[in-house]
């Protein structure tokens, strides 16, 4: 099985953007990882069309029930039914007559990232299967299976639990048997796992069987503690998970759309533009150096388990990029010691080498020799994965200092604006959490609202100083 570098550790890297020790205002705005929070969609908000979430993250459900991508669809640019004129393109949710942003390509009026878009992977006409992702390799982008999956006969499967491809492609378990940790078993699933049509899965973390067999997470949600939840810092709006701290169509709350020319910063619409060091990406103020959805340039996404570091998509320390997907060469049986180096079953991968049996202190889990006391994908037993940014400590998933658990997710209450000084304490729009206190990210608080006294015509040079039309505030003076 193509095993990613402890998948939970990769996911945790996104949590740590918000949960780490950084307390500067810049560390808290539009980082693409967002503030740690958990939205399971219990409010029932599924967008104009109602019903279930859309299959893909970022899609919008329209009144007719169809799902569209408002960031790139020229027939639904920025919203359902908003069609771009002839000669225009849909660029980051806005119709543009001047072409696509840097890093994006015009594919029949849609401005897309050829390195990550599964509908246009490497070329406008190259479309990936629905079970594949588009991953940017060393020389070119290509359709491939996502983290933890292998391509067997044209389908991406988990060799650790697929009863038709158990441990290796084509190895089918006999009737009445199950596939547990990459081995067929006639005595049922391993501890902590459940039998879902012959597949032994962890109902607390399996995206295809979340909380119960057959309950799949969609719309960008993942399975956390047995419930489908949006990633940290995002909320269910209009059919998928969106970041209300920076989304101009859902700024601060679902459906709260910023007006023409306004930008969404920390959940508040602002007309004065994005703060210094931030970039306007279709009305969203983001940091191109660390935003996984806008890495190095607007609309450039990181896939395959990569993070955005200094404006470039890369694997976390300890992981290796193999054809666009981050893997752990020390235990991955399909990339054992080097990319593409496969162990032949029943061989296992341990300490970067194919072996007949696992070394002492490690356990064989789906072809990998792992330490179940510390492995986030096999914590306490094979197939039991840690979620929500948790670490595997002594065989149990737990939040480690300085984080605390809030609704199944590890957060740092010292700087998390959704859990400031305690779980559920949300800072007002425009505020950040610094040293467990809500405060303005920049500017001055006037009547409980953050204002930039340098260009705010209602608070010019100081709170309550109003410029009389046609004067405007510039440099803290009405002119």
Describe this protein's structure.
The chain has a domain at 444-479. The strands form 20 sheets. Strands 1-2 form a two-stranded antiparallel sheet. Strands 3-4 form a two-stranded antiparallel ribbon. Strands 5-6 form a two-stranded antiparallel sheet. It has one helix and 40 strands. 3% of the residues lie in helices and 25% in strands.
Q: What profile does the largest beta sheet have?
A: 2 strands, antiparallel
Structural class: mainly beta
Uncertain stretches: 6-38, 42-50
Q: Tell how many strands the DSSP assignment holds.
A: 40
Portion in beta strands: 25-35%
Q: Give the helix level as a range of percent.
A: under 10%
How many H/I helices? Answer: 1
Global mean pLDDT:
87
The shape, in one word, is globular
Instruction: For the record, give the distance between the C-alpha atoms at the N and C termini, rounded to a whole number.
Output: 66 Å
What Rg, in angstroms, do the CA atoms define?
24 Å
